[in-house]
Write a structure and sequence with these properties.
Length: about 425
């Protein structure tokens, strides 16, 4: 048999170069040697929320929720990954406190002294209470973490190519256009949770297959359309984060999302601060309440972000590079953070930005097979995307390689749950 006739390695195309896409690539590379991974990213790896998030990890804050198993396993995996990934990404356990500022009430002596190191939160009218110890909360640098996953995948020789381009078209078998495919998909009845293997196989037989992903590449020579073919055993995973809504072009039953926007900034404090994550509830001089988070980092910087909100006036841009901070909201955040601590109030501003967090109608991740034989999705983790990425990536890898995840129960996250609710 000639080289040209030799069987090609199984290909997985991953659309989205954030933490989910890179984690899925890494978990696949660990488990399958004869695999060729193509990663598609419009802007740059970790250019959006995966590079702009706080990186806070909590073991048990999702207990009693459908994401408990996903979260606890991920927290354990984070500690294991920190020991094996090839690049440092500032992972460390941290204590966590809650800081309340309310001029209407004087803080009690017990609450102010309840944390061994929280004396740095010395703002007027500020009380501090312990929230978690370093055995159950930790942190990492999301941008460095995502790139460490990518580098590890490269070293496992599984990454065939990183393609910088915009998702343009999803081509289906037996369909001349995306709209025709979407119509066909809408008529297919499919249950990812079918108990009998025969019925599951029959359901798959009724689904079309994705045969190509078309990407628009804009380089120095102008726009060029490139088609990445998918053959019989090849598969595609969409890890598009807050841009997952565009899947509705090709998968008409995919649920609409409403991304939340989060403002953040980095600063160099006036004095060093301890490894202590802070969840703040700050009532300012105008009696307005600000909900915020503060994460000192090992490199000496402090990251601060405001609570999530939906911004109808500023819709999600098509291009991640166009996401910018709201300067007024950023100024409010800086002021509120400064009310907690003189070290933060007197610090040096480094940079401000914002990001959009992917959500779903029921506030749960969306992980599983789409209405195509070889297409999958992993999105909708909201503010817990960095935390829940290891188990999510592992589950998707198992789903692709084995037909189901044996490590994580994915039934609460099945994309089909929204279709069932509409019936």
């Amino acid at each position: 048999m000639s080289d040209s006739q030799a069987k090609q390695p199984r290909q997985v195309v991953i659309v989205g170069g954030g933490v989910m896409g890179c984690m899925i690539a890494y978990q696949l590379a660990l488990r399958e040697k004869d695999l060729s991974i193509t990663l598609i990213e419009r802007c740059a790896v970790a250019c959006a929320s995966s590079g702009r998030a706080g990186g806070f990890l909590a073991r048990d804050w999702c207990d009693s929720l459908p994401t408990e198993q996903l979260t606890r396993l991920s927290y354990q995996m984070h500690a294991e990954l920190a020991a094996v990934l090839p690049c440092s990404y500032d992972y460390r356990p941290v204590t966590t406190v809650e800081a309340n500022r309310d001029p209407r009430h004087s803080p009690s002596a017990s609450s102010s002294s309840s944390s061994s190191s929280a004396g740095w939160l010395d703002g007027e009218h500020v009380s501090v209470d312990p929230k978690a110890d370093s055995s159950t909360t930790a942190q990492l640098h999301p941008y460095k973490f995502t790139h460490a996953l990518l580098e590890a995948t490269r070293r496992l020789e599984a990454l065939r190519e990183l393609v910088h381009g915009t998702l343009h078209e999803v081509v289906f078998s037996g369909s001349a256009s995306a709209s025709a495919s979407a119509s066909a998909l809408h008529e297919v009845v499919f249950s990812a949770s079918a108990s009998a293997s025969a019925s599951a196989s029959s359901a798959l037989d009724g689904l079309p297959a994705v045969t190509a992903i078309q990407v628009m590449i804009d380089d120095s020579s102008g726009e060029q359309l490139r088609e990445i073919p998918l053959h019989e055993d090849d598969e595609v995973v969409f890890a598009l984060g807050p841009w997952s809504d565009q899947l509705r072009r090709w998968f008409s039953t995919f649920p609409a999302g409403a991304p939340y926007k989060c403002q953040s900034y980095r600063m160099q404090p006036a004095m060093p601060v301890p490894a202590e994550a802070v969840f703040g509830y700050v009532r300012d001089e105008a009696d307005e309440l600000h909900i915020l988070e503060v994460y000192p980092r090992p490199d000496g910087e402090v990251y601060a972000c405001a609570g999530m909100h939906q911004d109808a006036q500023v819709p999600l841009p098509d291009d991640p590079a166009e996401i910018a901070a709201d300067l007024d909201k950023l100024a409010e955040l800086q002021h509120a953070v400064g009310l907690l601590s003189s070290r933060l109030r007197g610090g040096h501003f480094v940079a401000g930005t914002s990001c959009y967090l992917p959500t779903s109608a029921d506030q749960l991740p969306i992980i599983g097979r789409l209405r195509a034989r070889n297409a999958y999705v992993c999105t909708g983790h909201s503010c817990w995307g960095i935390l829940q990425s290891p188990a999510s990536g592992l589950a998707v890898a198992e789903l692709l390689l084995n037909g189901k995840s044996t490590t994580v129960d994915l039934s609460p996250f099945d994309p089909e749950r929204f279709c069932s609710a509409d019936k």
